[in-house]
Amino acid sequence: MNYLSLLPNSAHTDAIAREHTHRRAWVEQEKKGFLRYRNPFRQLAHYRAAHVDCSGDTIIIGQPNEITEHERQHVTENLQAFMPWRKGPFSVFGVNIDAEWRSERKWRRLLPELPDLTGKVIADIGCNNGYYMFRMASSAPRLVLGFEPSVQHYYCFKALNAMAGRPELDIDLLGIEHLNLFESCFDVVFLMGIIYHRPSPIDTLRDILRALQPGGTLLVESQAIPGEAPIALFPDETYAKVPGTYFVPTGSCLCNWMKKAGFDDINLFCTHPMSDMEQRRTDWMTFESFKDYIDPDNPQLTVEGYPTPCRVFVKGRKKE
User: Fold this and answer.
1) In 3-state terms, what secondary structure has residue 241?
2) Domains of the chain: residue spans and CATH
3) Has this prediction a pTM greater than 0.85?
4) For position 2, what pLDDT does the model report?
């Protein structure tokens, strides 16, 4: 838990340490649900990559000639234990992981609006396997802390970073509900693919505002419905077959949420339609994906009859 020493004095470090200890005790239980991901992490943690490159679309951890063919089979089997892979692409000692999402496309959309990350303390809320954290690493941040309560994603990142050896990247089994412990801690917060899963989005944004340093930046990427009106869809049980979806806003609605939460300099800088060119089944994610969520007779609707989602990107700043 080395990241505590990199946080400012405003962090509630004792409470964070207690929560960390509680969550570690939970995840280290000798139960199948935990061992399913802990065991491949332990197997992969024996490998150390000599070559790591986070600057390109594919995160490269190790070259093919760094391990034997027998070892590569071992690496492949243990990486496959983390399926389904949602974010990527990665290349691990020559094992190419084609994840469900072409995450490099999202990163390219963020690039023009990224603040300077050099030397910054950054939070990635709901970081999944850490693809975006690795992309941030090429900008030499002081710390990127991933908040990820999923055991699968937590151990997947731990395995990847054990091999990559990036000390500025860390992860904890924390959720967005723990942000109140990180008062005025972060220069930049990334909230990507999360806000529509929150039952009270404005309260969530206020929590992020409190966790930012004065002058800090929030970058939000969200599923959205098309349209200019400041409204949000409140689906019944699922939206595009995804449970746990609460409010799906338009871009202008999301901007209004951020304004009411107290953000300044709000900028909706990208809107684009979703497609199966960017989210799809692969050999590393063999379950249903985007095209299975859309009405086959009307691509403007989801299978539930709601408007087909697009994605929006919004940037906001905490006042000095």
Assistant:
1) coil
2) 9-317 (3.40.50.150)
3) yes
4) 85
